[in-house]
Design a protein that fits this description.
Elements (H helix, E strand, L loop, with lengths): L7 H7 L6 E4 L2 E7 L14 E2 L5 E2 L9 E6 L8 E8 L6 H7 L2 H8 L3 E6 L18 H15 L8 E10 L3 H10 L6 E5 L6 H10 L4 E6 L6 H14 L5 E4 L5 H6 L2 E5 L13 H7 L9
Parallel strand pairs: 6-7, 6-8, 8-9, 9-10, 10-12, 11-12
Antiparallel strand pairs: 1-2, 2-5, 3-4, 5-7
Length: 296
């Protein structure tokens, strides 16, 4: 399995010092920690020889339980709030994901009445391991912690509950998403994979089959180290089970196809690290979500 690397200089440029809260471009970022993130976890308690054949110590790679909450301007104080969780891939952390891929900016521009949540995974390492998210109910605990923090900061009213759950990821983040589907004990309504279908196909297929309203998008390239092959395999399985899906080229994609097809594969001829924000494809999916409400 091969994942594309973001150059170390990019990681250095976009490393951000955590702060309790910050505001930029109309949105606010709150910082918290949770005992229900991927790490620390016993599976990496002694460090790990990662996918680059580099030994990663626990400190700096498997000891961070940080969570970033991106609050859009004019979030409605309704009783239910939708949550969008993003899981980064190899050689990243939550701050590089926010900055390099412009996730907060895209989210704010999409004008969704929701909160974007980035939970730290294996930090600056070539490792897809989902850590504690593999435990039964761990993701439910993370959702609870997020809701309590939003209430504590006065973002939500005291009786607010989580509404729709959307999961998004890039590259190696797929494993954490699959862990949540398998063990999270929380309903998930929508999934956006960006060049991230490397395995766990039965988990994704079972989730697709659970509910005809589930919305699944995989935006993949020929340069992701196997995501094209896995996409073809999943499409063949869907076809064998008479489950409708649409495969379209990136240049042919239009908003109606996103809205009208519950299972969508988008093939891109571009590179692995540019399909999220060059142009703003994450924002495009948010704007045409099956479940997220727009404040427009």
């Amino acid at each position: 399995m091969i994942y594309k690397r973001i150059a170390g200089i990019i990681l250095a440029i976009f490393s951000v010092v955590a702060a309790p809260a910050q505001k930029d471009q109309g949105y606010q970022i709150l910082r918290m920690t949770s005992a229900f993130t991927s790490f620390p976890d016993t599976g990496r308690a002694r460090g790990w020889l990662d996918g680059d054949s580099v030994f990663r110590a626990v400190a700096g790679h498997y000891d961070d339980s940080s969570v970033a909450l991106v609050i859009p301007p004019r979030l409605k104080h309704d009783r239910k709030v939708d949550l969008i969780f993003w899981f980064h891939g190899w050689h990243n952390n939550i701050d590089t994901a926010l900055q390099f891929y412009g996730l907060a900016r895209q989210f704010a521009a999409a004008n969704c009445d929701a909160v974007l949540v980035l939970a730290e995974a294996a930090k600056n390492a070539a490792d897809s391991y989902g850590g504690k998210l593999r435990r039964k109910g761990d993701f439910a605990g993370l959702v609870k912690d997020v809701m309590e923090e939003l209430k504590r900061y006065g973002v939500l009213q005291s009786d607010a509950v989580a509404g729709h759950i959307v999961l998004g990821c890039h590259s190696g983040g797929y494993s954490a998403v699959a862990d949540i589907l398998e063990n999270g004990q929380t309903p998930v309504d929508e999934i956006y994979l960006f060049d991230a279908l490397y395995g766990r196909l039965p988990v994704f297929l079972n989730w697709i089959r659970e509910d005809k309203r589930h919305h699944f998008v995989h935006w993949y390239t020929d340069h992701g180290g196997g995501t094209d092959v896995a996409s073809d395999s999943l499409m063949q399985q869907l076809k064998a089970q008479h489950i409708d899906y649409l495969l379209t080229g990136e240049a042919l994609l239009n908003p109606g196809q996103i809205r009208d097809n519950k299972i969508l594969f988008v093939h891109s001829t571009r590179e692995h690290n540019v399909i999220i924000n060059d142009p703003d494809d994450f924002g495009l999916l948010l704007e045409n979500s099956s479940v997220l409400l727009s404040k427009r």
